[in-house]
Structures are given as structure tokens and as C-alpha cells.
């Protein structure tokens, strides 16, 4: 499917309320457990999404529009949240993400993008040339992927509790 | 993690509003596309969840409580929705699922379950002996797995649109 900017907005705006619904008031045993060493808990994922709003999506869109391929993006620190989220409650993180996403969508509107601008190229430090359109598609998929990760990590907390049903629940072995 | 009935209720009640948030008013191109032959669209998944409320979870809990291992569960038709959902709008399906889930949770409360009752065994037609506790854990994981499926199927619609970012977005290749 080709990218449509109205779809990007429509899907991105749903992520904060979806995360609020899934995670607000959930016991710590569901929020803080992960899938094993070097994996992330639902709590970690929210921190990671916050860092994306602050340093990845809109900042990179602006670099593409202002500098094209002449300036590579600043590399994104995927694990910044392990320091940045420290001592913050899940409510605080969810509220921060909700605010930052609203600001991002506001800034997206203010870019007044045309179809031609969406084809403009920037330079990813590892992936090479990428278009603004590809950046926005990646933003949408990144959101959806992390919602999927959150529910997968949660489901694994019941990996033993389901007993023989494990054979019928593919999410437990992904 | 061991099953706690309050967690089961807490997570199961979140699924209908989560699906509403993800899917309501979404364009058909996001609702009706799947991952390829013999896979399900987000629309199909909602129909499947409806059929589960009607024929799987609470009905099986009652069979366990009433008949123990003396009567195997009726096999669950995983694909019943391809007939049952026909001609229904996504709004209709989402509303039906919301109502049925509320009824299921009401019935769950009315079972007045004790820890001893949760260890009661029933007979799965293929998996053999299973406990009520395992049934409820499977219900939770089944919900979470299908939320994960919905966002994965959606993300794949942008599998090409993300361009080189595909390498960094594992949800696209799961």
C-alpha cells in the first residue's frame, strides 16, 4: 500500500490512547517483566517511544526538508530509556508520550507537506538514502510493532500458566 | 507468573476498548487486507474473537465446572467468522464483541470461583486434561495474541512503503 499522509496521522494519533488503555493501572508484575535478558518490558517500550518523539521522527523529517542528503541523521539511541525513564512512574511516562505525540502531530501539520516534498531524500547514517515518505511509513510501523511487542511481552508472563494450550498460542513462541 | 483472577478480569476488560481505539473509523484498506493467502485481516480477527465469546471461553468454563473430565469440550471452529461476519460492518462487529465480552465478565463473576475450583480439570478434545486456571490464562493470552496479530497485519501493509527501514522493523518479518 502507498503511504497517505491522512493515514499516517490517523494511525499515529491512536497510539497514546491505546497504550493508556493497555497499561494504565496495570500491576507492576505486568508492566516491569520482560521476555528475558536484554529484552524490554512494557514500561521500557513506553520510554523508548518517548525518546523517539524527542529525537527521531519529527527531528529527522526537519533534517530531510532542510538539509536533504547533505547531512546524515543523528544516530538514534534505541536504549536511551534505560537511563531516561529511571524513577518515573508508568503514568508519568504515558502522559509524557501523550503530550509529545500531540506536539509531533501538530508539527507534522505545520510542515504543510506536498506530495513532492514527501519524495525528498535524506541520509540515514547506516541505511543510506531514504525519503520523507519512507520515514513516515517507518514511524507508523514502529508504533504498531511496539504495540505488538507490549502485548507479546505481557502474554509471555502466562507462558506457563496456559499449560497445554501453549501449543495453540503462537504469540508465546514468537 | 501464576494466574490471579483479578488480573484475568483486568486484562480481558481492556480488549474491547483497545480494539475500538485501533480499528474504529479506520479506512477499509487497513481493515480488510491480510498478510497473504489463508491469513486473517483485522476485520476477520474481530469476528473470530466474537465466536470465542459465544462458544469457547465461558461455555468451556461451565463444562469444566459441571462435567469435569467426563465430557470433552465441543471443538472450537477457528474460522467460523468467515461465514458469520459476512455483510457486517466493522462497527457492528466491534459493538457485538464489546457486549459479549461484558456479558462474559459478568458470567465469570457469577461463577464465584474459589482457588480450589480453579484447579478443577476438564477434557480438551485434542490437548487432553486441562484446568480451569489454564483455560483462563489461555483466554488472556489469546486476547493479547490477537491484538498483536492486528497490529502486525496492519504494519505489513506498509512493508514496501518503509523502504530500507524494513531491516530495522522486525514486526514486518514475523
Architecture blueprint of SSEs:
The structure is a homodimer of 174-residue chains.
Chain A: H1 5-23, H2 28-31, H3 42-55, H4 57-67, H5 81-84, H6 90-110, H7 115-118, E1 121-124, E2 128-131, H8 132-156
Antiparallel strand pairs in A: 1-2
Helix pairs in contact in A: 1-6, 1-8, 3-4, 3-6, 4-8
User: Element order, helices and strands of chain A?
Assistant: HHHHHHHEEH
Low-confidence stretches of chain A: none
Quaternary structure of the protein: homodimer
- What percent of residues of chain A adopt helix (DSSP H or I)? 55-70%
The 3D shape of chain A can be described as elongated
- Helix count of chain A equals 8
Description:
Two copies of one chain form a homodimer. With 174 residues, chain A is mainly α. In chain A, 59% of the residues lie in helices and 5% in strands. Chain A contains eight helices and two strands. The first copy, chain A, has a two-stranded antiparallel ribbon. In chain A, helix 1 packs antiparallel against helix 6 and helix 3 runs parallel beside helix 4 (57-67). Chain A is elongated, with a radius of gyration of 18 Å. The two termini of chain A are 25 Å apart. In chain A, 44% of the residues are buried. At the A-B interface, helix 1, strand 2 and helix 8 of A face helix 1, helix 2, strand 2 and helix 9 of B.
